[in-house]
Amino acid sequence: MKKNLKNIIEALIFMSIDPLTLDKIKDILKEFSDKEIEHAVEELIDSYSEDKRAISIIKASGGYLFATKKEYDEYMKRLLKDEKKQKLTREALETLSTIAYHQPTTLAEISAIRGVDATHCLKTLLEKKLIKIVGRKKSPGKPLIYRTTKNFLIYFGLNSLEELPSKEEIEKILEEKYGDN
Amino acid sequence: MERSEGYQIKLEVFQGPLDLLLFLIKKKKIDIHDIPIASITKEYLKYLDNKKNINLERESEFLLMAALLIHIKSRILLPRESPDEEEQDPRKILVDRLLDYKNIKAACKILREKEEKQIKKWKRKNLPKSVPFQEIEFMELSLFDVAEVFFKLMKRQEKSHIKFITGKDFSVKEKKQEIINYLKDNHYLDFFEYFSKQETVEESMVSFFCLLELISERMVTAVQESLFQTIKVWLRSESNT
Predict the structure, then answer these.
(1) Mind telling me how many Å the CA of A106 is from chain B's nearest CA?
(2) What's A90-177's CATH class?
(3) From B129, which residue of chain A is nearest by alpha-carbon distance?
């Protein structure tokens, strides 16, 4: 029975397009106790982390999803003709992290923080579905308001916005980089 | 084109005026909380001087920062109106922005590492979509959205550099019927595809107006799967006679 549960969860994750959360699994599998489910999920993840598997179960955006292991990157690129696998440009990444830390935010705010106009970057990020428009601000000009998406979390392997680099992590980087300041 | 080239190289190095200032501060080993405005302004202007021409459109931000630096310096020099007034350090506004930007840059470094790690792990979510037709979630479009796609198309047409000589006139009425007939035969019409078949700007315009009219007459319905994608047009079922 227990082994069966593990398989059921495996199938659920396999069929989910969005990362499957623990709550959702519990909701679907009412006949099993929370503890049983949590245990089975752990076992399942463990069994996938073995070397002989090419696929692993990772946690992102608060849920579980399948991902190929990094060793197979090269082959996946060939299979999928390298689609969408360009890294973000420096500008785009800076704009994106500005939005991530200051959201909800507007074009004017983003541009002010970076000291550079961000119009072009926003377009790129919208196309990549890393940010979304959530409405208009009730201020002069009614500027659009931007937020990061669920896709953003998955892209960086984060579970929630709370997992963005913390103040401490940032300070550590700054010490390394600007030790003399 | 030629004159902006020298500066564009620089732009790749510095992400903007704040980035350039941070670089100078680091290079001169300056305490960010106690910036000697005069000397940093001098350094900053020296960088700007290196290019013979400034492309205002692209580099106005650098000039704006130069103006801010000089403004700060002048405020430091000028006596205060009332001596007992506790005035804030005029440099504070700049320091706050620099610190804020520095944090963003550091966060970017961490995020970049995460990106590099994640980008090698392929997820099924990244796969190109091949969802069965009925299951696609559509969103209802405003005329504005349709117009936007149209302008995009016109731009694309421009790029193809095809020139036609034609004396043909297009009537809205004929074109409307043509679209309706097309829809009857083909179930739906792919906006991008349809317009790529139009030969002239004039013809494209006429068919676009027809489409707008058909939408406003509620003869057809137009949906777009997501932003920046093609628009699909159907006959409304009640007019399907």
Answers:
(1) 16
(2) mainly alpha
(3) A17
CA distance B59 to B173: 50
State the CATH architecture for A2-75. Answer: Orthogonal Bundle (1.10)
Sequence ranges of the domains in chain B: 2-118, 133-239
What value, to the nearest 5°, has the Cα angle with vertex A130 and ends B65 and B147? 90
Which residues make Cβ contacts (< 8 Å) with residue B55, sequence separation at least 6? B3, B4, B7
Q: Which of A115, A155, A173 sits opposite B61 (nearest CB)?
A: A115
Tens-digit pLDDT profile for residues B113-161: 999 888 888 887 766 554 444 455 566 667 777 778 888 888 777 766 6
Cα–Cα distance measured from residue B10 to residue B24, given in angstroms and rounded to the nearest whole number: 14
CATH 1.10.10.10 in chain A: give the residue spans.
2-75, 90-177
Q: Give the CATH class of B133-239.
A: mainly alpha
**What ipTM did this prediction achieve?**
0.81
Give the residue among A155, A173, A154 at the shortest CA–CA distance from B105.
A173
pTM here is 0.63
Asked if A157 and B114 come within 8 Å (Cβ–Cβ), the reply is yes
